[in-house]
Write a structure and sequence with these properties.
It contains twelve helices and 18 strands. With about 500 residues, the protein is an alpha/beta fold. The strands form four sheets. It has a ten-stranded mixed β-sheet, sandwiched between helices. Strands 15-16-17-18 form a four-stranded antiparallel β-sheet, covered by helices on one side. It is globular.
Length: about 500
């Protein structure tokens, strides 16, 4: 009896030690065009109740000063994957489209390829939007051989498994690509159907129904979790959604559920995806040792009908000025929540400045690895904010923001310096507007007293303007914002915005 009890105790002890030593699984859920004010954990006065996203915050760390690298899609995805600012590449403004070639250099280390080396099974399900090489020499719908394997696909960038669409849900070609091959060959032209507006006409595959994309992504993601929860290897799932980006496509029980708008209904579908992910992790017994990151790639997009939200008393940008594309806070100040039940015993609100590039260095610290100088040049670790333990890794003290039209801003402490007179994007005032021509060429805001960016105080603080311009110039020209050997930016230099240095 005693031997049996001792044997059982040893088994339990061995299991406990193994569980403690087991590397955590990691899931990164990236919403598309979700405003910070659309998450009720951030905006309790909003009209959309995201109960499942809120539960992540109630069981994790809610970052209140989190930013994307850019106010549009592709650049943010590049930053997450590489830990590097997007404008260091040849993409100086705007986004890629469905036929564009890869933005990530195949020789560059990504979060996925790094985690592969640490023993992780890696997968990506969702909107890729970082370019790949179709089965042709020149891009363009009529020149693509959709039967051929895609080159430089996510699998080339460190993913063992991939199921993606090439770009946004409103960008052709409309097709699923699984591990480098189309699941069905696009052959029909889609211009738009009753009740659904696809803003860009293009070729569509017979198995591609726009209103089913979010559900299909969820199905594939849950399958990946189910399959890999039962294996010895930890897993990393990058889950970039195509919602609630336009076209707005709530279906089934979600139609009208919000009592706000179709967009709000679509947000509730995103919230339900989070619920399904958590439930699947719990069902497989791996929830407690899974890190879940939830974020958005930029702010709310005006084409999703801002006025419809405002008319119901709901502001997707909350207290912030601007929307997607803009250099103002509403363009890049996003929800960012990290849940890890095993190591976060009580909820926490963190005011630490973070950027979506910081995921890479955080994962590196988690794995006790020092990155080479040519890897994750703009990534700082926020692991100490999650574990509560001191770290030798440097925390982020400043951040560079970027608009869709390629304009810069830099943030340090409570100061934000914008290197243009306008929004830098589609918001007001636009670059070409008469108003912009009458305004000072730069903007300086004290966010501690003016979070709405309404009072430009550049003239009162020339020393701050000079300091921040010098810091911005250095971080651009050094090819990095972290410590290490200087690196090279790709593409043409276009730093004319920095001419204010010394003036």
């Amino acid at each position: 009896m005693k031997k049996s009890l001792l044997f059982s105790t040893l088994i339990c002890l061995t299991f406990s030690i193994k569980s403690f030593a087991q590397k955590p699984n990691i899931i990164y859920i990236l919403a598309d065009d979700l405003g910070i004010g659309d998450v009720s954990a951030y905006n309790p006065e909003g009209k959309i109740q995201t109960t499942n996203i809120d539960k992540l915050a109630q069981n994790g760390v809610k970052f209140t000063d989190a930013h994307t690298t850019s106010a549009v899609c592709t650049p943010t995805r590049y930053g997450i994957m590489t830990g590097r600012y997007n404008w260091r590449t040849t993409l100086k403004k705007g986004v890629l489209h469905g036929y564009d070639t890869p933005l990530i250099d195949p020789k560059r280390e990504t979060v996925a390829s790094f985690l592969q080396k640490q023993g992780y099974k890696t997968g990506v399900v969702g909107k890729w939007h970082l370019g790949w090489t179709w089965g042709n020499i020149e891009a363009g719908e009529k020149k693509v051989d959709f039967t051929k394997e895609i080159k430089n696909s996510p699998n080339t960038n460190g993913f063992d498994y991939s199921f993606c669409i090439p770009a946004s849900l409103d960008m052709p070609p409309y097709a699923y690509v699984e591990n480098g091959f189309c699941t069905a060959i696009p052959k029909d032209t889609c211009i738009g159907r009753k009740g659904i507006e696809l803003f860009r006409a293009g070729i569509i595959a017979p198995d591609f129904q726009p209103e089913e994309v979010l559900g299909k992504f969820t199905e594939k993601a849950l399958n990946f979790i189910n399959q890999n929860s039962k294996k010895e290897k930890p897993f990393f799932l990058y889950f970039p959604l195509a919602a609630p980006h336009t076209p707005i496509l709530p279906i089934g029980k979600f139609v009208g559920k919000s009592n706000v708008s179709p967009y709000a209904d679509f947000v509730l579908m995103v919230d339900d995806v989070v619920k399904q992910v958590v439930e699947t992790l719990k069902k497989n017994g791996v929830y407690e040792n899974t890190i879940i990151v939830f974020a958005s790639d930029n702010g709310f997009a005006n084409p999703a009908d801002l006025q419809a939200q405002l008319s119901k008393g709901h502001n997707p940008s909350m207290i912030y000025r601007g929307l997607k594309t803009d250099i103002f806070e509403g363009g890049h100040h996003v929800p960012f929540i990290v849940s890890w039940k095993k190591n976060i015993q009580s909820p926490k609100v963190s005011k630490q400045l973070v950027c979506t590039t910081d995921f890479f260095q955080t994962i590196a610290e988690l794995n006790n690895k020092k990155l080479n100088d040519n890897i994750a040049e703009d990534s700082f670790s926020f692991l100490s904010e999650i574990t509560g333990k001191k770290t030798t890794f440097e925390a982020r003290k400043s951040g560079i923001h970027h608009s869709s039209d390629g304009f810069f801003a830099i943030r340090k402490d409570n100061w934000k310096l914008i290197m243009c007179s306008h929004s830098g994007g589609n918001g007001k005032p636009k670059e070409i507007s008469q108003e912009a021509k009458t305004l000072p060429p730069i903007q300086l805001y004290d966010l501690s007293t003016d979070i709405g960016e309404t009072q430009n105080v550049y003239a009162q603080h020339p020393e701050i303007v000079k300091e921040l311009t010098a810091l911005l110039t250095k971080q651009i020209q050094d090819g990095r914002s972290t410590k290490g050997k200087n690196q090279t930016n790709e593409g043409p230099a276009y730093w004319s915005q920095l001419t204010w240095l010394g003036k």
